[in-house]
Specification:
155 residues, mainly alpha, 90% helix, rod-shaped
């Protein structure tokens, strides 16, 4: 087997590594935005607590912020697991690439192991995508809480 064949064989895991890397950028950004929003709401709670407001208004604003923080925290957990699964998929793709090299260079029979690891990596991406879809669904619920608090009507 020549080097060109080896490069062609290892192309699938390399494409998977690249795709997972790009998806991770998006997931990290979502995860960071959730954290930023929680910190912003915590700051708002502090500001409202010391503001000159009617007690009822203050309690409503604080309760609303706490409700949003709870929802955001649930989203953060989903995002965290989605990111973890993507990282394990990335590790699987890297190990797969290395095993392909060993398989070709050392003439060791690792085809089944390589296919299982590749399939497992793709499965992890699928589960991560499902978790991300659930997190996105929850983001709309959080937004509706905020809209409800401002307009005092359910969206």
């Amino acid at each position: 087997m020549n080097w060109l064949d080896l490069i062609q064989i290892t192309l699938a895991p390399v494409v998977l590594i690249t795709a997972v890397g790009l998806i991770n950028i998006s997931l990290y950004n979502r995860y960071g935005r959730i954290h930023d929003r929680i910190r912003h709401l915590l700051h708002d709670i502090d500001a409202v607590s010391s503001a000159q407001l009617q007690e009822e208004t203050r309690e409503k604003k604080i309760a609303n912020a706490k409700r949003q923080i709870e929802m955001l925290f649930e989203r953060a957990k989903l995002s965290k697991w989605s990111l973890f699964l993507m990282q394990f998929s990335l590790i699987g793709a890297i190990v797969d690439s290395l095993l392909i090299f060993v398989n070709v260079l050392e003439s060791v029979r690792l085809e089944v192991v390589i296919l299982v690891i590749f399939g497992f990596s793709v499965l992890l991406i699928l589960i991560s995508a499902v978790l991300t879809a659930v997190e996105i669904s929850k983001s709309l619920k959080g937004l509706s809480v905020e809209v409800e608090a401002v307009t005092e009507t359910k969206p």
